[in-house]
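Q: Protein A?
A:
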Amino acid sequence: MQMELEGTGVRVGMVRPGPSSTEQGTDWDEATVLHIIPAWERWGLLRHNGALLPHNVADAIVAMVSAPKGTHLSLIEVQPEAPVVPDRSHR
Protein backbone atom coordinates (compact mmCIF):
# COMPACT_ATOMS: atom_id res chain seq x y z
CA MET A 1 0.00 0.00 0.00
CA GLN A 2 2.89 2.34 0.83
CA MET A 3 4.32 1.89 -2.68
CA GLU A 4 0.92 2.40 -4.30
CA LEU A 5 0.37 5.70 -2.47
CA GLU A 6 3.92 7.04 -2.82
CA GLY A 7 3.91 10.57 -4.17
CA THR A 8 0.27 11.21 -3.26
CA GLY A 9 0.95 12.78 0.13
CA VAL A 10 -0.67 9.84 1.89
CA ARG A 11 1.72 7.98 4.16
CA VAL A 12 1.19 4.38 5.20
CA GLY A 13 2.74 2.83 8.29
CA MET A 14 2.30 0.02 10.76
CA VAL A 15 2.18 0.11 14.55
CA ARG A 16 3.01 -3.33 15.90
CA PRO A 17 2.13 -3.64 19.61
CA GLY A 18 3.64 -6.26 21.86
CA PRO A 19 1.92 -7.83 24.88
CA SER A 20 -0.95 -5.63 25.96
CA SER A 21 -3.65 -5.64 28.57
CA THR A 22 -6.60 -6.52 26.37
CA GLU A 23 -9.28 -9.14 26.57
CA GLN A 24 -7.38 -11.48 24.23
CA GLY A 25 -7.35 -14.95 25.64
CA THR A 26 -9.98 -14.31 28.29
CA ASP A 27 -12.24 -16.87 26.67
CA TRP A 28 -9.51 -19.49 26.13
CA ASP A 29 -9.87 -22.77 27.95
CA GLU A 30 -7.15 -23.93 30.33
CA ALA A 31 -5.66 -26.40 27.84
CA THR A 32 -5.15 -23.63 25.26
CA VAL A 33 -3.50 -21.33 27.80
CA LEU A 34 -1.19 -24.11 29.01
CA HIS A 35 -0.20 -24.78 25.39
CA ILE A 36 0.35 -21.13 24.38
CA ILE A 37 2.21 -19.72 27.41
CA PRO A 38 5.33 -21.94 27.14
CA ALA A 39 5.68 -21.03 23.46
CA TRP A 40 5.39 -17.32 24.25
CA GLU A 41 8.03 -17.69 26.98
CA ARG A 42 10.34 -19.67 24.64
CA TRP A 43 10.15 -16.96 21.96
CA GLY A 44 10.72 -14.16 24.47
CA LEU A 45 7.21 -12.77 24.29
CA LEU A 46 6.71 -13.12 28.05
CA ARG A 47 9.97 -11.89 29.58
CA HIS A 48 8.19 -10.14 32.46
CA ASN A 49 4.68 -9.39 33.64
CA GLY A 50 4.58 -5.89 32.12
CA ALA A 51 1.92 -5.16 29.54
CA LEU A 52 1.05 -2.24 27.30
CA LEU A 53 -1.98 -0.21 28.20
CA PRO A 54 -4.31 1.07 25.48
CA HIS A 55 -2.95 4.62 25.80
CA ASN A 56 0.59 3.32 25.15
CA VAL A 57 -0.46 2.01 21.76
CA ALA A 58 -2.52 5.14 21.06
CA ASP A 59 0.55 7.32 21.80
CA ALA A 60 2.57 5.33 19.25
CA ILE A 61 -0.14 5.86 16.64
CA VAL A 62 -0.17 9.59 17.35
CA ALA A 63 3.62 9.68 16.97
CA MET A 64 3.34 7.97 13.59
CA VAL A 65 0.66 10.22 12.14
CA SER A 66 2.32 13.32 13.63
CA ALA A 67 5.67 12.75 11.92
CA PRO A 68 6.72 15.97 10.18
CA LYS A 69 6.24 16.32 6.43
CA GLY A 70 9.20 14.93 4.55
CA THR A 71 9.57 12.02 6.98
CA HIS A 72 7.92 8.66 7.00
CA LEU A 73 7.68 6.23 9.89
CA SER A 74 7.01 2.92 8.22
CA LEU A 75 7.07 0.77 11.37
CA ILE A 76 6.83 1.41 15.09
CA GLU A 77 7.16 -1.64 17.31
CA VAL A 78 5.92 -0.97 20.82
CA GLN A 79 6.98 -3.24 23.67
CA PRO A 80 6.07 -2.95 27.35
CA GLU A 81 8.78 -1.83 29.71
CA ALA A 82 9.65 -4.25 32.48
CA PRO A 83 8.33 -3.18 35.88
CA VAL A 84 10.94 -1.27 37.87
CA VAL A 85 12.48 -3.39 40.60
CA PRO A 86 13.74 -1.36 43.57
CA ASP A 87 17.54 -1.52 43.92
CA ARG A 88 18.04 -3.51 47.09
CA SER A 89 21.86 -3.44 46.98
CA HIS A 90 22.07 -0.17 48.95
CA ARG A 91 20.51 -1.47 52.15
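Q: Protein B?
A:
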Amino acid sequence: MKRQSRSLLTMMILVSAAMAGELPIGAPLPSPDYLMKAVGNADVSLNSSMGEAGLVVIFSCNTCPWVLAWQDRYIKLADAFIPKGFGVIAINSNEAARNRGDNFDDMTTHAIENGYNFTYALDGGARLATEFGASRTPHVFVFDAGGTLVYRGAIDDNARRPEQVENEYLADALSAMLAGQKIVQNSTKALGCTIKFAR
Protein backbone atom coordinates (compact mmCIF):
# COMPACT_ATOMS: atom_id res chain seq x y z
CA MET A 1 0.00 0.00 0.00
CA LYS A 2 2.83 2.42 0.86
CA ARG A 3 4.52 1.62 -2.44
CA GLN A 4 1.31 2.33 -4.35
CA SER A 5 0.84 5.59 -2.45
CA ARG A 6 4.37 6.73 -3.26
CA SER A 7 3.91 5.80 -6.91
CA LEU A 8 0.67 7.78 -7.04
CA LEU A 9 2.34 10.73 -5.30
CA THR A 10 5.22 10.64 -7.78
CA MET A 11 2.80 10.62 -10.71
CA MET A 12 0.84 13.54 -9.26
CA ILE A 13 4.04 15.57 -8.75
CA LEU A 14 5.20 14.88 -12.32
CA VAL A 15 1.81 15.80 -13.80
CA SER A 16 1.77 18.97 -11.70
CA ALA A 17 5.32 19.82 -12.83
CA ALA A 18 4.45 19.31 -16.48
CA MET A 19 1.51 21.68 -16.13
CA ALA A 20 3.41 24.29 -14.14
CA GLY A 21 6.78 24.20 -15.89
CA GLU A 22 9.97 23.10 -14.15
CA LEU A 23 10.09 20.16 -11.78
CA PRO A 24 9.50 21.59 -8.29
CA ILE A 25 12.13 21.47 -5.55
CA GLY A 26 11.43 18.38 -3.45
CA ALA A 27 10.17 16.33 -6.41
CA PRO A 28 11.45 12.78 -6.95
CA LEU A 29 13.79 11.84 -9.79
CA PRO A 30 11.64 11.30 -12.91
CA SER A 31 11.88 8.03 -14.89
CA PRO A 32 14.97 6.85 -12.98
CA ASP A 33 15.31 3.60 -14.95
CA TYR A 34 14.61 4.98 -18.43
CA LEU A 35 17.50 3.81 -20.64
CA MET A 36 19.38 6.19 -22.91
CA LYS A 37 22.26 5.63 -25.32
CA ALA A 38 25.38 7.39 -24.08
CA VAL A 39 28.60 8.34 -25.83
CA GLY A 40 30.70 5.19 -25.80
CA ASN A 41 27.57 3.21 -26.77
CA ALA A 42 26.62 2.28 -23.21
CA ASP A 43 22.99 2.22 -22.12
CA VAL A 44 22.59 4.45 -19.07
CA SER A 45 19.78 5.61 -16.83
CA LEU A 46 19.55 8.32 -14.21
CA ASN A 47 19.68 5.62 -11.54
CA SER A 48 22.84 4.09 -12.99
CA SER A 49 24.39 7.56 -13.14
CA MET A 50 23.59 8.40 -9.51
CA GLY A 51 26.57 8.81 -7.18
CA GLU A 52 26.72 8.17 -3.44
CA ALA A 53 26.28 11.89 -2.76
CA GLY A 54 23.73 12.67 -5.49
CA LEU A 55 23.29 13.38 -9.17
CA VAL A 56 23.81 16.42 -11.40
CA VAL A 57 21.65 16.41 -14.54
CA ILE A 58 22.48 19.00 -17.21
CA PHE A 59 20.20 19.34 -20.23
CA SER A 60 22.70 20.27 -22.93
CA CYS A 61 23.52 19.95 -26.64
CA ASN A 62 26.37 20.48 -29.13
CA THR A 63 25.30 23.65 -30.88
CA CYS A 64 24.02 26.27 -28.42
CA PRO A 65 26.39 29.24 -27.84
CA TRP A 66 25.42 29.25 -24.14
CA VAL A 67 26.51 25.61 -23.82
CA LEU A 68 29.75 26.35 -25.65
CA ALA A 69 30.41 29.20 -23.22
CA TRP A 70 29.67 27.12 -20.12
CA GLN A 71 30.86 23.62 -21.03
CA ASP A 72 34.43 24.13 -19.78
CA ARG A 73 32.81 24.64 -16.38
CA TYR A 74 30.92 21.34 -16.76
CA ILE A 75 34.32 19.68 -16.99
CA LYS A 76 35.81 21.53 -14.00
CA LEU A 77 32.75 20.77 -11.88
CA ALA A 78 32.92 17.09 -12.85
CA ASP A 79 36.63 17.03 -11.97
CA ALA A 80 35.90 18.57 -8.58
CA PHE A 81 32.73 16.73 -7.57
CA ILE A 82 32.72 13.26 -9.17
CA PRO A 83 35.58 12.17 -6.82
CA LYS A 84 33.42 13.43 -3.93
CA GLY A 85 30.56 11.11 -4.81
CA PHE A 86 28.38 12.95 -7.33
CA GLY A 87 27.24 11.49 -10.60
CA VAL A 88 27.21 13.91 -13.53
CA ILE A 89 25.20 13.36 -16.71
CA ALA A 90 24.55 15.72 -19.62
CA ILE A 91 21.45 14.95 -21.68
CA ASN A 92 20.78 16.03 -25.27
CA SER A 93 17.03 16.45 -25.82
CA ASN A 94 17.21 18.49 -29.06
CA GLU A 95 14.90 16.10 -30.91
CA ALA A 96 14.06 18.56 -33.70
CA ALA A 97 17.73 19.33 -34.36
CA ARG A 98 19.11 15.81 -34.82
CA ASN A 99 19.94 16.60 -38.45
CA ARG A 100 21.45 19.98 -37.53
CA GLY A 101 24.39 19.04 -35.35
CA ASP A 102 22.72 17.17 -32.49
CA ASN A 103 22.56 13.54 -33.58
CA PHE A 104 24.38 10.78 -31.74
CA ASP A 105 27.47 10.82 -33.99
CA ASP A 106 27.71 14.58 -33.51
CA MET A 107 27.46 14.08 -29.75
CA THR A 108 30.28 11.54 -29.80
CA THR A 109 32.55 13.85 -31.80
CA HIS A 110 31.67 16.83 -29.61
CA ALA A 111 32.34 14.95 -26.37
CA ILE A 112 35.73 13.70 -27.58
CA GLU A 113 36.85 17.03 -29.01
CA ASN A 114 35.92 18.88 -25.83
CA GLY A 115 37.31 16.36 -23.35
CA TYR A 116 34.03 15.46 -21.65
CA ASN A 117 34.73 13.60 -18.41
CA PHE A 118 31.10 12.79 -17.59
CA THR A 119 28.27 10.82 -19.18
CA TYR A 120 26.65 12.37 -22.26
CA ALA A 121 23.38 10.72 -23.31
CA LEU A 122 20.71 11.10 -25.98
CA ASP A 123 17.14 11.69 -24.78
CA GLY A 124 15.09 10.06 -27.53
CA GLY A 125 11.78 11.83 -28.03
CA ALA A 126 12.87 14.43 -25.45
CA ARG A 127 11.10 12.32 -22.83
CA LEU A 128 13.19 13.42 -19.86
CA ALA A 129 13.23 17.08 -20.88
CA THR A 130 9.45 16.97 -20.93
CA GLU A 131 9.19 15.26 -17.55
CA PHE A 132 11.70 17.63 -15.96
CA GLY A 133 10.10 20.71 -17.49
CA ALA A 134 13.53 21.57 -18.86
CA SER A 135 13.39 24.39 -21.39
CA ARG A 136 16.96 25.61 -21.96
CA THR A 137 20.45 24.42 -22.74
CA PRO A 138 22.03 24.35 -20.28
CA HIS A 139 19.38 23.64 -17.63
CA VAL A 140 20.66 22.06 -14.42
CA PHE A 141 18.85 19.81 -11.93
CA VAL A 142 20.55 18.40 -8.81
CA PHE A 143 19.20 15.45 -6.82
CA ASP A 144 20.35 14.22 -3.43
CA ALA A 145 21.32 10.59 -2.84
CA GLY A 146 17.69 9.74 -2.13
CA GLY A 147 16.60 11.06 -5.53
CA THR A 148 14.97 14.29 -4.32
CA LEU A 149 15.41 17.51 -6.31
CA VAL A 150 17.39 20.03 -4.26
CA TYR A 151 18.61 22.57 -6.85
CA ARG A 152 17.56 23.66 -10.34
CA GLY A 153 18.57 26.45 -12.70
CA ALA A 154 21.87 27.89 -13.94
CA ILE A 155 25.49 26.87 -13.40
CA ASP A 156 26.58 30.35 -12.32
CA ASP A 157 25.75 33.99 -12.99
CA ASN A 158 28.01 34.76 -15.96
CA ALA A 159 28.16 32.50 -18.99
CA ARG A 160 30.27 34.78 -21.15
CA ARG A 161 32.89 35.95 -18.65
CA PRO A 162 33.91 33.22 -16.22
CA GLU A 163 36.43 35.54 -14.57
CA GLN A 164 33.53 37.81 -13.55
CA VAL A 165 31.36 35.12 -11.93
CA GLU A 166 30.09 36.29 -8.55
CA ASN A 167 27.69 33.43 -7.72
CA GLU A 168 28.66 29.82 -8.40
CA TYR A 169 25.15 28.46 -7.94
CA LEU A 170 25.83 24.83 -8.83
CA ALA A 171 29.19 24.49 -7.05
CA ASP A 172 27.74 26.20 -3.97
CA ALA A 173 24.78 23.79 -3.93
CA LEU A 174 27.03 20.74 -4.21
CA SER A 175 29.40 22.02 -1.52
CA ALA A 176 26.47 22.66 0.82
CA MET A 177 25.21 19.12 0.26
CA LEU A 178 28.61 17.65 1.10
CA ALA A 179 28.78 19.76 4.27
CA GLY A 180 25.29 18.70 5.32
CA GLN A 181 24.10 22.30 5.09
CA LYS A 182 20.98 23.85 3.60
CA ILE A 183 21.32 25.09 0.02
CA VAL A 184 20.85 28.84 0.35
CA GLN A 185 19.74 29.44 -3.25
CA ASN A 186 18.01 26.29 -4.47
CA SER A 187 16.39 27.75 -7.60
CA THR A 188 17.75 30.16 -10.22
CA LYS A 189 16.74 31.09 -13.75
CA ALA A 190 18.14 28.81 -16.46
CA LEU A 191 19.60 30.84 -19.32
CA GLY A 192 20.37 29.49 -22.75
CA CYS A 193 18.96 28.35 -26.07
CA THR A 194 15.52 26.75 -26.08
CA ILE A 195 15.42 22.97 -26.23
CA LYS A 196 14.36 21.94 -29.73
CA PHE A 197 11.30 19.77 -29.12
CA ALA A 198 9.76 17.91 -32.08
CA ARG A 199 6.34 19.25 -33.10
